[in-house]
Amino acid sequence: KGEQLYRIDLKGLQPGKHRMEFPIETSFFNEFGENQIIGANLKADVELEKTGLCMRLGLKIEGDVTVECDRCLSELQLPIDVEETIAVTFSGVSRVRDEEDERPDGDVIELERNETELDLSQVFYDYVCLSLPIQKIHEEGACDPVMMERMKEILKYAEAKGTSLGAFNTPNMTTLRGVLSAAEALNEPVIIMHAQ
Question: What is the pTM of this model?
Fold first, then answer.
């Protein structure tokens, strides 16, 4: 199973620093049911430092992902560069806090005392998704020219009629069918924002 690739075996892990490398590709996001990221070529470098019963993860994720442009819906490649430090503790185990742990934005992973593996798949997924910009669009002039021309035609049509143009977020097939049925009944164009 793909997720096994992102697990660290903690049994017998010696104190000190341990370095690991994990590939994160398109299939990784497919397993999460991700529909925002349609392609990925990433590498995660992890440095795990064990001191007693506590551990610290140094995480660096680099590469690029492919998403849909919010403006023209064609593919858009975005660079990813994530660097984070995460504290790993076990429930019920007290630890000495240092200045780094006091950071208000520092993340902590808490494991049950009997856990023998650290699964990083959710960590990788969350950090990559959170690093994406809210608005994902090509640079000016780089959008699909056919789609942009079609959009201009629709906007001109709405302007000539003195009406607004509806843009609808359709997260599932039920809402998509509803919007299309209404648009056909009214014989009016609409903008559909539908994730793949």
Answer: 0.76
